[in-house]
Amino acid sequence: MKMAIASSMLRLAAGIVAAILVAVLISAPKQVGAIPCSVVIPKISPCRGYIDKSKRIPSQSCCDGVKDINDRSKTRQDRVEACKCIKQALSLMSKYDPNRIPLIPGKCRFSFSLPVIKSDTDCNK
């Protein structure tokens, strides 16, 4: 009898855990394509020294971060959102040369391009 009760309790507990897991998975927020700024900003932050002219060339971590963001930006909307994140991060810098941003891929020996990003850049274009 004790064994049957224990078995029933175990099945009940397993059912409750399964129901909770399903509820959590259903209610979890879904990432909709675009890369969040919480990913973009740390990836590009090593580029600060290059774009503020305190470094002559981008660091390897800058190159790696820029390549990773480019690789993750599969759609136009991904690129728009990444641009907005970069624009937000740049707004916190006291000075930088926006004309150095398009130079990063070449300095890192990548074949893709980056636009000049200034405070008035329209990331939707």
Automatic annotation (TrEMBL):
GO terms for molecular function: lipid binding. It holds the Pfam family Tryp_alpha_amyl. CDD domains: nsLTP1. Keywords: Disulfide bond, Lipid-binding, Signal, Transport. Gene3D superfamilies: Plant lipid-transfer and hydrophobic proteins. Residues 37-123 form the Bifunctional inhibitor/plant lipid transfer protein/seed storage helical domain. One of its GO terms (biological process) is lipid transport. It comes from the Eukaryota. The keyword Disulfide bond applies. The keyword Repeat does not apply. Residues 1-34 form the signal peptide. SUPFAM superfamilies: Bifunctional inhibitor/lipid-transfer protein/seed storage 2S albumin. Belongs to the plant LTP family. PANTHER family: NON-SPECIFIC LIPID-TRANSFER PROTEIN 2-RELATED (PTHR33076). Plant non-specific lipid-transfer proteins transfer phospholipids as well as galactolipids across membranes. May play a role in wax or cutin deposition in the cell walls of expanding epidermal cells and certain secretory tissues. This is Non-specific lipid-transfer protein. The lineage of its organism: Eukaryota, Viridiplantae, Streptophyta, Embryophyta, Tracheophyta.
